[in-house]
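Support request from a user on the community tier.

User writes: "When I paste my structure tokens into the form, the page sometimes reloads and wipes my input. The last time it worked, I copied everything first. Here is what I submitted, just in case something in the input itself triggers the reload:"
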């Protein structure tokens, strides 16, 4: 369902017979190509069929117009409004397809219980094409609400403490997180979700900014936790009646659980999902990508210093290097290739007792986690052009996979299962995080289809707790009912009856 607001409330322009305008199709480019780069705001490109010329004639006034795309909920019995007698319904109409007999009301307003796919504002530009039947096709673009955070610059809170004169964005991590959230709401952006806000408040006290700097709000947010091996990547996430800005953890260890009925579930990145079998998704028929070698993480952090002349604190750049700790073959570390993360964490104190905010240094466990992340980024082959489609996936089960936001994946019985590493691990085993892609809507053979072509990144895995068949007690399935190979068994972390 597509709604627009030209200043007089929402108009339903989804399109039905004889409606003045209708949605012909759309794509949403979303996310990022790599977890070391934060996602750009999603961009909606949509096509509106204008039957009257009303929108086309006023197209120069559409910039800034609100746009809302919702996935209509499955109709309830009380929603069925077809007056055709039962006896003349198509013979092939089954209970599974009965919802298709429902015709949405053209004047319907946004449903607060429906799943939002995109919300934002139309940008300037676009095209209008006059068609042979004297209708018009408008090709328009819209930015997601997150763009406001990326464009908002300004100073942060200051302190009355003389030591912090000439600085802004002072205070603790908790104070900074609350102020970021307040400004997001003031801008009309989705707020930080509860889990993300709570996590940010556990960060060490961050460095302040010089008074002559005007950082973007997004920069301040990203730098608050960029040093942590959880590796937060921030996405607009939409639910049924709510939106939030949420961190998905691209560095947290993931797990895969085998259940007594043979189903696999994957948990990681703060998400959980049923694993998709190989016949439910499509990939490039012939291509796997060999990733670039990454053997080092550089954390660009801060040193706090004391100015004896002005009796105040200042902050300068510092750096911490993190390596693969022997998890990478030596031939892959001969040439050091690194990825960098910019953080406001204070990692060195040259101000003595004048600085009371503490100093952060990675623990041995955190260094190990960064090393595990480097290993999976370098050693895991990538499937190309993995596409999730509503033609193959049940929207009720795989809802997050068909949205323009991060989603979690695990695979069994794929075309690449036979490709094994030295440790017997199949190329596509383990947990995967979709970090970007293109969501599209189109009509195929008269059926509305959502498809998401995804960019995947592998997640570090928790070690398996299973070592023998008896560890699966009390599983009662026959061998033939488990549709994966011995190699794919190695990716299973837990068994749950």
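"...and here is what came back when it finally went through:"
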């Amino acid at each position: 369902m597509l709604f627009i607001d030209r200043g007089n409330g929402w108009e339903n322009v989804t399109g039905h017979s004889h409606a003045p305008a209708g949605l012909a199709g759309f794509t949403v480019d979303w996310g990022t190509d790599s977890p070391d780069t934060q996602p750009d705001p999603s961009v909606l490109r949509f096509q509106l069929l204008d039957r009257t010329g009303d929108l086309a004639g006023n197209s120069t006034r559409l910039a800034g117009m609100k746009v809302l795309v919702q996935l209509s909920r499955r109709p309830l019995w009380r929603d069925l409004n077809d007056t055709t007698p039962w006896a003349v319904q198509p013979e092939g109409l089954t209970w599974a397809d009965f919802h298709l007999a429902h015709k949405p009301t053209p004047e319907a307003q946004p449903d607060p219980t429906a799943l939002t796919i995109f919300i934002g504002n139309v940008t300037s530009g676009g095209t209008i094409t006059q068609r042979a039947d004297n209708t018009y096709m408008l090709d328009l673009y819209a930015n997601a609400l997150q763009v406001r955070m990326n464009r908002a610059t300004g100073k942060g809170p200051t302190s009355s403490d003389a030591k912090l004169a000439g600085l802004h964005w002072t205070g603790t991590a908790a104070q900074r997180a609350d102020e970021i959230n307040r400004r997001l709401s003031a801008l009309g952006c989705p707020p930080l979700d509860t889990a993300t806000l709570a996590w940010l408040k556990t960060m060490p006290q961050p460095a302040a900014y010089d008074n002559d700097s005007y950082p973007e709000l997004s920069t301040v947010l990203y730098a608050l936790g960029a040093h942590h091996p959880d590796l937060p990547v921030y996405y607009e996430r939409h639910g049924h009646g709510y939106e939030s800005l949420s961190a998905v953890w691209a560095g947290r260890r993931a797990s895969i659980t085998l259940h007594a009925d043979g189903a696999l579930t994957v948990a990681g990145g703060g998400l959980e999902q049923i694993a998709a079998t190989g016949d439910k998704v499509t990939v490039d028929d012939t291509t796997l990508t060999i990733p670039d070698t990454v053997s080092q993480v550089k954390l660009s952090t801060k040193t706090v210093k004391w100015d004896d002349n002005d009796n105040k604190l200042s902050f300068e750049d510092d750096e911490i290097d993190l390596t693969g700790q022997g998890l990478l073959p030596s031939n892959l570390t001969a040439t050091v290739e690194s990825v960098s993360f910019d953080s406001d964490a204070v990692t060195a104190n040259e101000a003595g007792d004048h600085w009371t905010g503490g100093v952060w240094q990675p623990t041995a466990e955190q260094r190990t986690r960064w090393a595990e992340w480097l290993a999976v980024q370098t050693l895991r082959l990538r499937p190309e052009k993995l596409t999730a489609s509503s033609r193959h996936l049940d929207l009720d089960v795989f809802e997050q996979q068909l949205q323009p936001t991060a989603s979690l994946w695990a695979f069994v019985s794929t075309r690449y299962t036979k490709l094994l590493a030295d440790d017997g691990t199949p190329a596509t085993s383990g947990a995967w995080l979709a970090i970007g892609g293109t969501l599209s809507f189109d009509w195929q053979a008269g059926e509305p289809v959502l498809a998401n072509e995804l960019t995947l990144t592998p997640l570090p895995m928790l070690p398996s707790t299973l070592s023998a068949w008896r560890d699966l007690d009390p599983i009662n399935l026959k061998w033939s009912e488990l549709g994966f190979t011995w190699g794919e068994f190695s990716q299973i972390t837990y068994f749950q009856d």
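Agent notes: The reload is a front-end session timeout and is unrelated to the input. Helices lie at 54-57, 147-151, 173-187, 194-200, 217-225, 364-379, 486-489. Residues 364-379 form the longest helix (16 residues). Escalated to web team.
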